[in-house]
Amino acid sequence: MTAGPSALAAAVRNEALDLRTLAERLAREAGALQREKYETRIEIRTKSASIDLVTEVDHACEALIVAGLHEARPDDAILAEEGRGEDRDDARWRWIIDPIDGTTNYAHGYPRFCVSIGVEYEGERAVGVVYDPLLDEMFIAVRGEGASLNGRRLHVTQESKLANALVATGFAYDVRRSAQDNINHFIAFVKHARAIRRDGSAALDLCYVAAGRFDAYWELKLRPWDVAAGLLMVDEAGGRTSDLSGGPPQRSGFECVATNGPLHDQVLAILHT
């Protein structure tokens, strides 16, 4: 098992802890809005494909979070899924926001979705907050400080046999038209792992690896807001994260492997068969 990221410098750490508090507050406020509108009549539209959905609640939650950041942190960069905020290279701190990770689930009344807020300091993941509003589960990580769920310290599993592992993945929105559809990998893991789950929220999947609920997770064609908080969560819970070649995860989040550590090389081997 690999060690988590090194601790932030003292002055930066204190600021990161303040940002954690702010991110938690904004995530709870957005989550409250999601609970209020859950399983009600809402406006649903499509984006890049017929299975790529966005709702009025996505937009309302993103507007709430971005407005809070503009008020509290006007000099910070903001990258948000639905296009609010201003992402720029000259800011020390960068917020990466997915107002609802699992929008398709939310639109169908399937209770697997969350708010995901990641914060980078000079290009390095520093803070991660993921909030499941239906279960009232708040996952928090600060670089070098560990990861927690509702105040309880998180640790990955120690499982070393893929045959005993519960594994998670997902499929990209272009799955109907792209040859790189992840289905070959899915079939391979059906044959090698104990079981596979596909629940439609990358942020929650990563948090579940950190919490020991999943032993491993992989996915292709992700975006920064899908993984900004969750990758730090896994690292800080003692797990291992990489791209499909075993190198550091890309900042873009295009491809991602996250495991408890002992299973990582086995997972990579399956992905390269």
What this model shows, in words?
With 273 residues, this protein is an alpha+beta fold. The protein has two domains: 10-153, Fructose-1,6-Bisphosphatase, subunit A, domain 1 (Fructose-1,6-Bisphosphatase, Chain A, domain 1); 162-271, D-Maltodextrin-Binding Protein, domain 2 (3-Layer(aba) Sandwich). The chain is 33% helix and 25% strand. The chain has helices at 10-37, 56-72, 103-108, 183-192, 202-210, 224-236, 264-271, and strands at 44-46, 53-55, 77-80, 93-101, 114-121, 124-132, 137-142, 146-149, 152-153, 166-168, 195-197, 216-220, 240-242, 255-259. It has a seven-stranded mixed beta sheet, with helices on both faces. The chain has a five-stranded mixed beta sheet with strand order 11-10-12-14-13, with helices on both faces. Strands 1-2 form a two-stranded antiparallel ribbon.
The poorly predicted ranges are none
The percentage helix is 25-40%
**N-to-C terminal Cα separation, in Å?**
23 Å
Please report the total strand number as a whole number.
Answer: 14
Mean pLDDT score? 94
Contiguous helical run count:
7
CATH class of the largest domain: Alpha Beta
Main beta sheet: 7 strands, mixed
Biggest sheet strand line-up: 3-4-5-6-7-8-9
Secondary-structure element series = HEEHEEHEEEEEEHEHEHEEH
CATH architecture designation of the largest domain: 2-Layer Sandwich
Strand proportion: 15-25%
| CATH topology annotation of the largest domain | Fructose-1,6-Bisphosphatase, Chain A, domain 1
- Total domains: 2
Helix/strand-derived category reads: alpha+beta
